[in-house]
């Protein structure tokens, strides 16, 4: 196992460009990385790196060895997964990543009952609005609403995530209810703040035609909970996902407007479960995907507001 640790130190040093960065990734000291790489060089009888005060470069021998090291470590990881996959009982640690708001509202409440059903299973839910690397983050399953699922992972479409335009009844009574998309320019409008995007609201009608309206507010947020709070406080009209605002609409605290149009955002229209191909065979991943499918089908629970109060 010391040899394999040295191989991993070598691969991480190449990947991150320095032994210090590799040490941070592997949660050890730079001296440990340096020692392991030196031992590997002695074992192989070649120098793998050209060292200088300013840079660390692969030697020709290091360049030749690198792809072999990658394949060996990948094969070892596959072997471990295959062994843990023996039998059909979900067991071990299941690590799930989801965005902060969606995960808090719709994934975290599932875990107590899920772990009670499978007593040999533990779950960790990592809530972060930034995407996690499935390998380096040691994540079994990433739940993301996105237009472009990652190419290096299996992406299973779980559920459509609809968005609506909504405001408080008090705001609409005071400022008027927009009857056409062009009317939005007369209102304070909120949408999720994405870097580099113009302050516009994009709407799609039933025929698939798109309209872009230059509508915004003098204060903006890159947090969906802040947008909901501002809307509930009567500050304007917002583009909100129904998984967040559905209960507020059902309770009458918010009302939808321009119902013949669907907001279009950079996040896409669906929630995907993303996982590495070898993780999809694990019983713990399979049963959690099944639990999500049962939870969201035939209609996700947040869409019940459409049935009326």
What does this protein structure show overall?
The protein is of the alpha+beta class and 309 residues long. The chain is built from 10 helices and 14 strands. The strands form 4 sheets. Strands 4-3-5-14-6 form a 5-stranded mixed β-sheet. A 4-stranded mixed β-sheet has the order 8-11-7-12. Strands 10-9-13 form a 3-stranded antiparallel β-sheet, with no helix packed on it. Helix 2 (19-26) crosses helix 3. The longest helix has 25 residues, at 60-84. It is elongated. The mean pLDDT is 88.
Helix count equals: 10
Count of the separate structural domains: 3
By CATH reckoning, the class of the largest domain would read Alpha Beta
As residue ranges, the low-confidence spans are none
CATH architecture of the largest domain: 3-Layer(aba) Sandwich
Mean pLDDT level: 88
Q: Could you say what the CATH topology of the largest domain is called? A: D-Maltodextrin-Binding Protein, domain 2
Report the sheet with the most strands, covering strand number, pairing sense and barrel closure.
Answer: 5 strands, mixed
Give the neighbour order of strands across the main sheet: 4-3-5-14-6
- Written as H for each helix and E for each strand, in order along the chain, the element string is HHHEEHEHHEEEEHEEEHEHEEEH
Strand content: 15-25%
Look at the helices and sheets and give the structural class.
alpha+beta
The count of β-strands is 14
Shape: elongated
Radius of gyration: 25 Å
Distance between the termini: 62 Å
> Which percent bin holds the helix content?
25-40%
